[in-house]
């Protein structure tokens, strides 16, 4: 875990809200000089706190209005292929995110398609129609609201025993 001082925490919060902020605007919002702000942002990248800046794309606007979360459980013989399976999913154009899970299911795959027929084909061609997949369960997404992450220091973890 990386410790963040109040300025770094403020920079992270601002960039989570809008990763496209110009450096001088970001600096003004957190109360530091632009040159200092640039150095701090670079340091946050180098320390792995910020891993990237991404565009949030409206999938419906690009012809993929149907989104779903697909729970996937692999067969016992495929347990050694977890990483390869996850990587193969990330290469498919329908896949937005792949989550590796603890619990009964192995993965949660977030997909966007043009409609229900394309979603059905995706599940059949890439999941339930393959020998390594034991089970899938598809849940349609009606709406997605982005939460705001907890502020640095506001979440207390108990000490490890």
Automatic annotation (TrEMBL):
<dbReference type="InterPro" id="IPR019887">
    <property type="entry name" value="Tscrpt_reg_AsnC/Lrp_C"/>
</dbReference>
<dbReference type="InterPro" id="IPR011008">
    <property type="entry name" value="Dimeric_a/b-barrel"/>
</dbReference>
<dbReference type="InterPro" id="IPR019888">
    <property type="entry name" value="Tscrpt_reg_AsnC-like"/>
</dbReference>
<dbReference type="Pfam" id="PF13412">
    <property type="entry name" value="HTH_24"/>
</dbReference>
<dbReference type="InterPro" id="IPR000485">
    <property type="entry name" value="AsnC-type_HTH_dom"/>
</dbReference>
<protein>
    <submittedName>
        <fullName>Lrp/AsnC family transcriptional regulator</fullName>
    </submittedName>
</protein>
<dbReference type="InterPro" id="IPR036388">
    <property type="entry name" value="WH-like_DNA-bd_sf"/>
</dbReference>
<keyword id="KW-0804">Transcription</keyword>
<keyword id="KW-0805">Transcription regulation</keyword>
<dbReference type="InterPro" id="IPR036390">
    <property type="entry name" value="WH_DNA-bd_sf"/>
</dbReference>
<keyword id="KW-0238">DNA-binding</keyword>
<dbReference type="Pfam" id="PF01037">
    <property type="entry name" value="AsnC_trans_reg"/>
</dbReference>
<feature type="domain" description="HTH asnC-type">
    <location>
        <begin position="4"/>
        <end position="65"/>
    </location>
</feature>
């Amino acid at each position: 875990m990386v410790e963040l001082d109040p300025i770094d925490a403020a920079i992270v919060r601002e960039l989570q809200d809008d990763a496209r902020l110009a450096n001088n605007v970001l600096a003004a919002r957190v109360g530091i000089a632009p040159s200092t702000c640039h150095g701090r942002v670079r340091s946050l990248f180098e320390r792995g706190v910020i891993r990237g800046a991404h565009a949030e794309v409206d999938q419906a606007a690009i012809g993929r209005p149907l989104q779903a979360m697909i729970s996937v459980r692999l067969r016992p013989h495929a347990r050694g292929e977890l990483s390869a399976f996850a990587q193969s999913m990330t290469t498919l154009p329908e896949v937005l995110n792949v989550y590796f899970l603890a619990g009964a299911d192995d993965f949660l795959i977030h997909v966007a398609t043009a409609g229900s027929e394309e979603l059905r084909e995706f599940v059949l061609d890439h999941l339930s129609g393959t020998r390594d997949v034991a089970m899938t369960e598809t849940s349609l997404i009606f709406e997605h609201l982005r939460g705001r992450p907890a502020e640095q220091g506001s979440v207390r973890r108990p000490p490890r025993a």
